[in-house]
Amino acid sequence: MNKILILAGLFSMSLALTVAAENQLLFDFEEDTQAWTKDWGLLQSPTQSTRFAKSGNGALSFNHHFAPKNESVGVKYFSESPMDYSATEGFAGFSAWIYLAGGNQWEVQMYVRTGEKYTWAESRLYRNLGPGWHQIIMQAKEIPDLQDIRDIGVLVKNFSLNITTDVFIDKVEAVIVTKGGK
């Protein structure tokens, strides 16, 4: 029985080792905002910043006063022509890195709008985050129409703080999972 369990464990480990991610970088904000804009909650449009970056030297940045009645903001990229990931082999979703400069109890998530009716879909909510870099992921199964993605965005919330702070977003990617790797 022990030999069977050991063999099963080794087989599982070998399967895990044959899956690799070859992410497709969509936005890295090295030179500008790459057409990302405010969706709601912000008074000013986001800007490109070199203050904090997860990858390279630039990131998308916005400053906002979070307060109990002003706790939620969204920034997005609107695609002139719909993005289609329905035929992309191994497409597993989208990923972004977010830097929270101050405070605690942050909540963040990714969202998309799909189809002619701009149907809203969101990732799981990442809760109770503190300062620093955090990776957030929206899985493909959370996106209702993979062949008609109209925009992609990041939602930032804080229901408990009364704080003015900077938020940074970087390294937005399409997550592509391949078997066997390169």
Molecular shape = globular
Q: What is the N-to-C succession of helices and strands? A: HEEEEEEEEEEEEE
Specify the structural class: mainly beta
Q: What is the rounded distance between the termini?
A: 35 Å
List unreliable stretches of 5+ residues: 1-18
Strand content: over 45%
Give the tally of β-strands: 13
What is the residue-mean pLDDT, rounded to a whole number? Answer: 88
The percent range for helix content is under 10%
Estimated radius of gyration:
18 Å
Helix count from the secondary structure assignment: 1
Biggest sheet architecture: 7 strands, antiparallel
Tell me what you see in this structure.
With 182 residues, this protein is mainly beta. Helices cover 9% and strands 53% of the residues. The strands form two sheets. Strands 1, 2, 4, 5, 7, 11 and 13 form a seven-stranded antiparallel β-sheet that branches. Strands 3, 6, 8, 9, 10 and 12 form a six-stranded antiparallel β-sheet that branches. It is globular and about 45 Å long.
Summarize the structure.
Helices cover 9% and strands 53% of the residues. The chain is mainly β and 182 residues long.
Set down the secondary structure blueprint.
Blueprint: H1 2-17, E1 19-21, E2 24-27, E3 36-40, E4 47-49, E5 59-66, E6 72-83, E7 91-100, E8 106-114, E9 119-122, E10 126-129, E11 132-139, E12 149-157, E13 163-179
Antiparallel strand pairs: 1-13, 2-13, 3-6, 4-5, 5-13, 6-12, 7-11, 7-13, 8-9, 8-10, 8-12
